[in-house]
Amino acid sequence: MKKHNFSAGPCILPETVLQKASEAVVNFNNDDLSLLEISHRSAPFVEVIEKVRALALEHLSLTDKGYKALFLQGGASSQFLMTAYNFLHKKAAYLNTGTWSSKAIKEAKLFGELEEVASSADKNFSYIPKNYTVSKDVDYFHCTSNNTIYGTQMKEFPEVEVPLICDMSSDIFSRQLDFSKFDLIYAGAQKNMGPAGATLVVIKEELLDKICREVPSMLNYKLHVERDSMFNTPPVFSVYVSMLTLEWLKDLGGINFIEGVNQKKAALLYKEIDRNPLFNGVVATEDRSIMNATFTLTNDQLKERFDSLWQEARINGLDGHRSVGGYRASMYNALPLYSVQALVDVMQELERKA
Ligand SMILES: *Cc1c(COP(=O)(O)O)cnc(C)c1O
Asked: What domains, with CATH codes, occur in the chain?
């Protein structure tokens, strides 16, 4: 039986998806060739990439709304620089909510002036800043919807009069939002969609007119849109598995359905963190992420016992990020509710034995 996988990324994928993906590696489309050894320009693969691009827009309710979906390489980390390279003409505004935002800020500074509209660095990124203003004279506003490492999540997004760019790597397709508020969304596949290698970019076509300098081909959004996300060889396996995952999600009932499940999982775990005297939550309650829950032991001397209990229960990936410590339970779309129950059972067992 598969382990309970709370890994923060690369993360859990649906078992049916892994099954189909492994079959395609050996024999894709019943054509007696592997998905990995056929041309990315062959009809069967073109069908795959067209399908996943369409599915991404469909899930976000952005079909026929003037958006394009791309599957690019270089991870979400390349989007930190690509967004700025294409759109930072003079000055851009950034919200700093954690490690990933900070990295985005560092890269963007290479291309122009930056205004950090607010930051939660003062309290070790344990909350989401609110009540900041974004001025009208910036080229765009950039934020991170979910802070994978610290376990906070933006529940609301500011009304801005400039293009809104968002790193949704760790909560894309997990909850319903008005995605048409965003001009550019990016997300590394390996958090909630597929294996590492592909990065989803959803871009409003109007934004392409705002590319403000000469950009090398591989980093140019306009070129990738013109070439239907096939300017060069796409990461075929990651693209294919992403397609399978988005099909899986559609069969389940889409974002509306999975959001309900995700809320239930998060509620179950946070309730135990709040109830159990041996555990503490780490971040502001109203900003808690439904994807990544961070928590600590109230008594560090119980660490060895807790660690062996959850490992015996076949739980994987519970250690906090090396920069934060403590524990982090990542509850991405494919994690079943019973896995969260297994973790809660272990937390209660620790309480009984302590
Ligand atoms: C993991 C992560 C990244 C980095 O993704 P890579 O694909 O490894 O570059 C960026 N932003 C967020 C929010 C993440 O969770």
From this structure: 15-252 (3.40.640.10), 254-353 (3.90.1150.10)
